[in-house]
Amino acid sequence: MVLILLVGGAVFFYFRYCFVFGEGVKSGELNYVVYKGVFFKTYEGKLIQSGLRSKAVGSIQSYEFDFSVANERVARELMLQSGNVVELHYKEYFGVLPWRGFTKYIVDSIVSSHPIVQPMAMPGNSAPVVSTTVTPVGEI
Prior knowledge:
This protein is an alpha+beta fold. It contains 2 helices and 8 strands.
């Protein structure tokens, strides 16, 4: 009976906290990445995505992606990219472990990063011309 409970608990723990439920890439303007915590210091960040949504009647809010970063090198690189448009690869877990971060979304690499595109007006042309350079960062 004890063995069944131990095996059941181990299986539950694995699927709840270690099994990767999903993974993907999110893109948007990197708002911030901070290092915080009381007992477990973790890197936490927020990505502002394009588009608007409404949580309540009469309100408008932007799409936000809250995430954690377990790898210190990736977190330090993201701190330098604040304010840029970034594409982040992440893994999604069912549960949150306090030493891994405050969210169930764990960013593990930076796919690409570039400054926010600002339209430039050309003399004699009423339509703005967009100038941008994409710098792939790759997996760190």
